[in-house]
Specification:
The protein has about 100 residues and is an alpha+beta fold. The chain has one helix at about 5-30, and strands at about 30-35, 45-50, 55-65, 75-80. Strand 2 and strand 3 form a beta hairpin. Keywords: Signal.
Length: about 100
């Protein structure tokens, strides 16, 4: 392989892992945890909202505590829905009418 082709080819091959690392870092930053209930006293289990900052999806991750030890699985991730962005702070983006 001629030298003027080999050097750019080698640089491209060596930079591929860096591109993957950047994409992985963006995925890690994309999901933000928000502690809803800390679970410090072990009576009530910890609860964390996981927010997808790119698409607006929200999940609730909860662990089983002493209060509900006899029922359900040890931990769950429950899909909560999708959040819609607003145009201004304080704007109601969704409303639910009473019965």
């Amino acid at each position: 392989m001629p030298r003027r082709i080999a050097l750019p080819f080698l640089l491209v091959i060596l930079s591929l892992p860096l591109c993957r690392a950047t994409a992985l870092a963006e995925e890690i930053i994309r999901y933000k945890p928000v502690v809803v209930q800390s679970g410090d006293n072990n009576l009530f289990p910890p609860k964390v909202l996981i927010v997808d900052t790119k698409d607006g999806h929200v999940w609730l991750w909860r662990e089983r505590g002493r209060k509900d030890a006899a029922e359900g699985p040890d931990s769950q991730i429950i899909y909560q829905g999708r959040v819609a962005p607003g145009r201004a702070p304080g704007e109601a983006v969704a409303t639910v009418k009473g019965r």
